[in-house]
């Protein structure tokens, strides 16, 4: 079933799908059916645009561990170019509002990249609350006399925030 194809979607309404959606995480396997995944991603982006959704679209180009190091950037550019060209051809123009909400990540389960990518998704969803969270973490650090303080979920390995004293992580 394709939720964006009127012939197969049944009672699903794309507007309802995107109504309260803060982020869309689209995972594509870089090993298998990449062209089909790119077409479906483009359909998802256009449906989100048509529904006037403000949801961030996070693209995980997954299983990059099987791609040679020098080809990863080529893969990244290929997917991005396909989507950029598809948006222009479907909408007739370059749409800046889509570009601002569209992020690409090369991920694999064999390193930290998938955890970092999901951390960025969550951080994007709580962007308005981040200054308050960072201030609270800084207060905890100072009152507890800690050198550094981080807020993360051990189970999912999602990193949310750090204290204000750290400049770079």
Radius of gyration: 19 Å
Please state the oligomeric state of the protein chains shown. single chain
Sheet with the most strands: spatial strand order: 1-2-3
Shape: globular
Which percent range describes the beta-strand content?
15-25%
- What series of H and E elements makes up the topology? HEHEHHEHHEE
Strands, total number: 5
Short summary:
The chain is an alpha/beta fold and 169 residues long.
List the helices and strands and how they pair.
Layout (H helix, E strand, L loop, with lengths): L13 H6 L3 E7 L4 H17 L5 E7 L6 H23 L4 H6 E6 L5 H13 L4 H15 L5 E4 L4 E5 L7
Parallel strand pairs: 1-2, 2-3
Antiparallel strand pairs: 4-5
Helix pairs in contact: 2-3
Tags for this model:
169 residues; alpha/beta; two-stranded antiparallel ribbon; globular; 17% strand; 6 helices; 3-stranded parallel sheet; single chain
Can you describe this structure?
- The protein has 169 residues and is an alpha/beta fold.
- The protein has 6 helices and 5 strands, in the order H-E-H-E-H-H-E-H-H-E-E.
- The strands form 2 sheets. Strands 1-2-3 form a 3-stranded parallel sheet, with helices on both faces. It has a two-stranded antiparallel ribbon with strand order 4-5.
- Helix 2 links the parallel strand 1 and strand 2.
- Helix 2 crosses helix 3.
- The longest helix is centred in the middle third of the chain and has 23 residues.
- It is globular.
- The mean pLDDT is 88.
